[in-house]
Amino acid sequence: MCVKTLVRKQYEVQPSLRVLGVYGYEDLEPVIWAALTSGDPLLLMGNAGTGKTYLLNSLAEALQLEHRHYNASLISFDDLVGFPYPSENYQSVSYLSTPATVWKAQSILIDEINRCKPEHQNRLFSLIHERRVQGISLDKLQYRWAAQNPPPDPEDPNAEIYEGVEALDPALADRFAFLIEVPDWHQLSDTDKQLVTDPAGTGQISDDNGLLSAQVKEWQKQFELLLQSPPAIVIDYACIVADQLKSVDIRLSPRRVRQIARNLLALLVVSSDTSRKGVFLLALQSSIPQTAYGDKIDPKTVRSVHNTAWTIVHGNEQDRWLAQFRQQRSLTGKVKRLCEGAPNPDTGSIAISQALSSLLKADKIAFVFAVYPAVAKGHFNIGAEGLHALSEIAGKIFDVDETIQWRGSRGSVPPPDPLTQLVKKLESKISGPRLIRACQLFSYLLTNNIEVARPLQLEKAFNEAVEIIAKHSGLDQ
Questions:
Q1: Distances from the Cα of 179 to the Cαs of 40, 48, 289, 293, 364, in angstroms?
Q2: Does the first or last residue of the chain, that is N or C, have fewer Cβ atoms within 10 Å of its Cβ?
Q3: What is the mean pLDDT of residues 162-184?
Q4: What's the pLDDT tens digit per position in 249-272?
Q5: What does the pLDDT average to over 435-440?
Q6: How far, in Å, CA of 125 to CA of 132, rounded?
Q7: Is residue 396 within 8 Å of residue 468, measured between CB atoms?
Q8: pLDDT at position 474
Q9: CB contact at 8 A, 231 and 3
């Protein structure tokens, strides 16, 4: 099914959290509705008193669910399952239920989930992930929700400190489909501050005359249809953002990548936002589990990853190719992409310009020295501007005519003192033309006062790039 042709049943009056007495959550409403539509676990994160518990309990009231509200810091396992007693023949065990046990629940809220010890978090694992307790399926359970205060942040001296709060176990965090940070007081509008402050509605039952319940049922039908045939753009986007995040050391599990695609499908169903790009960004922002256990994720990084993925799945051929080139963060990655061929010389020249502006100084020089001979001989689809940009640097170390001539060798290039020590390290690992190339490269770097943090690592990447290009072009460097 094409995303653009997705049809929703629109009610004259749309569901709203404001009708339930929840204010300031407008930007997060699509994520809440998506969680209700998919039935996948939802985790709210925020400071004390920001309405996390109120919101989730209000949803249960509006949907008229058999609801259980547990405090993870106080709950015992018997509170969940009841008191076990054996059958008369001692062949099985049953549980004596109480009004608090989980067996008949349609929705559960585990409050303060990061205030319980790791071993107790493990007891909640199968409940959240599988809708099971003691291996027994909870067939009536539709929704699993949780709330937590921010995890400890030793790097932020102004962060509120919550005694007893521990970082959520990463495996448990990965089982929550949606993880969202709720707004605090300073993020509310003046009107919402007035409404939040007004005590008139305290204690009232949340009731929207069944509007939300009816809309959720309609959303669920559309969601099931999309699951049967997800749009290719959704699958491609999820794969690309996972690769992009990995390149900046943010790992997503294969299960999480699939969950991003599932979250995105749910958001496409419930969102009234005509800008699909905004829906895709919201899906990514609310699907990163690291935010639940204290890993710092720069919002700018997430947005940059999203923009690249969006360009790849939506752009023209040139935009897609350049976006894929940009996502290659390493020297060898960019060289491999060049070998795959730019769609036209102008695009190739733009790629060269981007590489020279984005790579670290030492990596940039290594990139230039690796690709210049093949570019000069026309083995890459790169225009005159790209060649000129490369030659301004590469021309200082070798000429290209019928054969590639490196200017001098280790013996004829007066090495600076640091190079002498570096060559001794290199000689124990490499020899022949590879050593000569490395000496030329590091001679240039050191004489131009370009810092080389990890010379052996740089030398390895440089020569891998040279070998990739040699296979592509047939040039012997």
A1: 11, 17, 7, 11, 38
A2: N
A3: 89
A4: 899 999 999 999 999 999 999 987
A5: 78
A6: 9
A7: no
A8: 73
A9: yes
Tally Cβ neighbours within 10 Å of residue 170. Answer: 15
**Residue 32's closest CA among 254, 162, 215?**
215
Nearest in space to 348 (alpha carbons), one of 314, 311, 385? 385
Sign of torsion over alpha carbons 348, 354, 356, 360: negative
The residue extents of the domains of the chain are: 3-195+210-305, 318-473
* Number of other residues whose CB lies within 10 A of the CB of residue 52: 24
- For the entire predicted model, the pTM comes to 0.74
Strands 136-137 and 143-148: unpaired
To which H or E segment does residue 218 belong? helix 211-228
Measured CA to CA, the distance from residue 412 to residue 397 in angstroms comes to 13
Q: What percent of the chain has pLDDT over 90?
A: 40
Model confidence band, residue 408 (pLDDT cutoffs 50, 70, 90): very low
pLDDT of residue 157: 63
pLDDT at position 419 over 90: no
Report the distance separating Cα 64 and Cα 310, nearest Å: 39
Stretch among 304-308, 354-358, 398-402 having the lowest mean pLDDT: 398-402
How far is 139 from 136, CA to CA, in rounded Å?
9
Answer for the pair 223, 266: CB distance below 8 angstroms, yes or no: yes
As assigned by CATH, the class of the 3-195+210-305 domain is: alpha beta
Is the per-residue pLDDT at 2 higher than 50? no
Quickly tell me which residue has 């004259």 as its tokens.
12
Which residue in the block uniquely carries the two structure tokens 């049943």? 9
The pLDDT, as a whole number, for residue 16 is 87
The answer on pLDDT for 344 being more than 80 is yes
Give, for 79, the enclosing helix (H) or strand (E): helix 77-81
17: tokens are 């959290």
The tokens describing 90, both together, are 């001692």
Q: Which residues, at least 6 apart from 43, have a Cβ–Cβ distance to it below 8 Å?
A: 113, 145, 146, 147, 148, 173, 176, 178, 179, 180, 292
Where do we find the tokens 């733009």? 350
Tell me which residue of 25, 62, 65, 26 sits closest to 206, measured CA to CA: 62
